[in-house]
Amino acid sequence: MIVYLVRRILNYLVLTAVASSLAYVLASIGLNPVAALQSRHPKPPQATIDLALDKIGANPKVPLIERTWVWFTNLFHGDLGQTVNNHAVSETLLNRAGVSLQLLLIGSIIGAILGVVLGVWGAVRQYRTSDQVVTYVSYLIFATPVFVMAVLFMIAATQFNQAIGTQLIVFSGQFSADAPSDFWGNLGDRLSHLLLPTLVLIAGSAASYSRYQRSAMLDVLGADYIRTARAKGRTRSSALVRHGVRVALIPMSTFFAYSFGTLIAGATLLELVFSWHGMGEQAIQSIQAADINAVSGATLFVAVLILISSTLSEVLYAALDPRVRR
Amino acid sequence: MRRWIRESGDEMTLSGIDALTEKESGFGLEVPEDPRPVRERRSVSRGGMIWRRLKATPRFWIGTGVIVGLVLFATVGPLLTGYAFDDQDVLYLNYPPTTVHWFGTDTLGHDVLTQTMVGLQKSLIIGFIAGPLSTLLSALIGSFAGYVGGASDKVISWFIDLMLVLPTFFILILLYPFFNGSWVLMTFFLALTGWMIMAQVVRSQTRSLRERDFVKAARFMGFGPWTVVTRHIIPNVASLLIIDATLGIGAMILAETSLSFFGFGVQPPDVSLGTLLDDGQSAAVTRSWLFLAPAIIVVVLLLAINLVGDAVRDAVDPSSGNNRD
Fold first, then answer.
1. What is the pLDDT of residues B87-127, one digit of tens each?
2. Cβ contact (<8 Å) for A142 and B302?
3. B68, B75 in Cβ contact below 8 A?
4. What is the pTM of this model?
5. For B49-320, which CATH class?
6. Which of A148, A269, A302, A304 to substitute to test the interface with B, most B CBs within 10 Å?
């Protein structure tokens, strides 16, 4: 079991390193930092441009394969190079990772729990009104792009604020400039900013998890081992939770890993809509600024997140399914 | 994430498909004697049976009806409004919906109704090309990897894993400099980045089909991989591919609107639903008609496509989905 996990993790590590190097290559071919430097006003002298290009390791006179190799080897020393504005990429990444993770972690954990609970509840109460309502609402959420939902929530929050006469729900940035400095006031301010983006993220992920969980749960509801558990004296709810939900969660653990990528993409879009200064904003701004190192850094961050979530789902799978452990 | 995939263990399988064929072939079932003479009995093909089930699903007809309506809205509509999508009506700048401009106008006096129709047209074209194209790619790559096996299978599987390390949206943003401005190229890039998960499903289906007698027979008769894959493997996963292509259209339209919304997709002067939503976003609170018109269209369109996709899935695999017993 440990051997199996270690092998999977090693495989993921290699994939992550290769994927981020490929991203570096793509960014180097597609982006043109020379043009970006030349278009500055006043136009810097050629020597300065060359110096700046060398500093970020993007001088087109050096062959691409050599530049990639330098980037790749530096990666193992924890050095991700410099941004076009002379900051260390690793430093900017750390600042922004915190912001993104705040949104992602809360959204994915609450979303997954809510989705599983709704799915199980829907399966147990199949075809009742509550099940139908959950089904129709999740269909509607599926059909709504994340950013459309975000803007609709903003419209609703604005009207809500107008109706009650104060700015209770704020939805621009992570915190207000004039936030109260005491602990509770500050926390309240941050939570108020967190509310809308988290709600959108939760709605999206809970909708898809609940569909899968409902389907997986329906598969096990009629199973013999549930009847056996009932026959040996377990109550209905205990049999369903201890024997049903546990089995139904096994295929879900793979799905969690798969859907985490979608979740990251969704969170990226939300950061932009709600003007959060996180990793998504970083990725998109650095493409616009033709900043190769920053793009590759952001890609690496996303790849590492996927790596962690895949590993976690393997562990969850092994914890739930004793057959894998052998 | 395509929603009808179910996994068991590491291998993804579509449970039900195998079970279904067993049931139809009558093994283990009492088949009542058909009183009609043999030549009058009509054998029911698998495709015919799926179509019969599909015809009986209201969701299928509602979805199809809405899609046809929206296609007409996008193609015939612009001819009827009396405005071109880039006409500027200086007498009506920033007007809320009126009888002159049913959906209102934007800051430049564009007729929002016409713009929505033309934008929908572009989104539909992109979705209807990119969705089926990515399904075609996944069918070819997945069945080839599964059928040939060996080293090429390893390489392809590893490449799929590699592409799944990054969310598709990120790959597309990285590719943006390569299709800068051209929506035709963007359509192809959408297809090129959307085939991986389906290819994995097709691959695992192919690996089990490979051991079936009819495939073995074809192989031993000396047919090459291309012939066996196109004649025997792909027809047997066709129902999966149809579902994937249907839901894929929706997924691609969603991807297109997201990319365009953030400026990485369709570029002016072209309009798509994504660029319209982007334009409407900044004024969504004060001049909501600019945002709501394309938003409602996109939600209705995706809802209809998902309805059809789900109905097809349920017809192909009655043991899955929402309306099973």
1. 776 676 677 777 766 777 777 767 778 888 888 988 999 99
2. yes
3. no
4. 0.81
5. mainly alpha
6. A148
